[in-house]
């Protein structure tokens, strides 16, 4: 990830961005998914974003981060979201991992 600073007059915005490529690459004569030019075996799960205390609302920011950290801990490299858009903080934590 790259940090970004944009200034216009007295206004300033700080953010970040990332660059990646995704393509189907020829690996030993077979088309395989490649992330940033490297073959990547995609393994993940369907995240339905259900929380016991709030149904579709996470109880706190730490809970969002914990779920993503557990995803990596279990060896997954993909999360498929189920019929909803998660809060922006979820995407922030996903980017940082």
In sequence order, what are the helices and strands, one letter per element?
EEEEEEHEH
Helix count, DSSP H or I runs of 4 or more residues: 2
Total number of β-strand segments? 7
Terminal Cα span: 10 Å
The proportion of residues forming helix, as a percent range, comes to 10-25%
Q: What structural class should be given to the helix and strand makeup? A: alpha+beta
Average pLDDT number: 90
Strand ordering within the main sheet: 3-4-5
Uncertain spans: none
Strand % is: 35-45%
Mind telling me the C-alpha Rg? Answer: 17 Å
* Global morphology: flat
Largest sheet: 3 strands, antiparallel
What is the assembly state of the chains in this entry?
single chain
How would you summarize this macromolecular structure in one to three sentences?
With 97 residues, the chain is an alpha+beta fold. Helix content is 23%, strand content 37%.
């Amino acid at each position: 990830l790259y940090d970004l600073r944009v200034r216009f007059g007295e206004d300033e915005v700080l953010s970040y961005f990332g660059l990646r490529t995704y393509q189907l690459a020829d690996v030993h004569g077979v088309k395989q998914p490649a992330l940033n030019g490297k073959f990547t075996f995609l393994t993940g799960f369907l995240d339905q974003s259900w929380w016991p205390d709030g149904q579709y609302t996470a109880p706190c920011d730490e809970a969002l981060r914990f779920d993503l950290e557990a995803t990596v801990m279990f060896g997954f490299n993909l999360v498929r979201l189920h019929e909803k858009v998660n809060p922006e903080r979820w995407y922030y934590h996903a980017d940082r991992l």
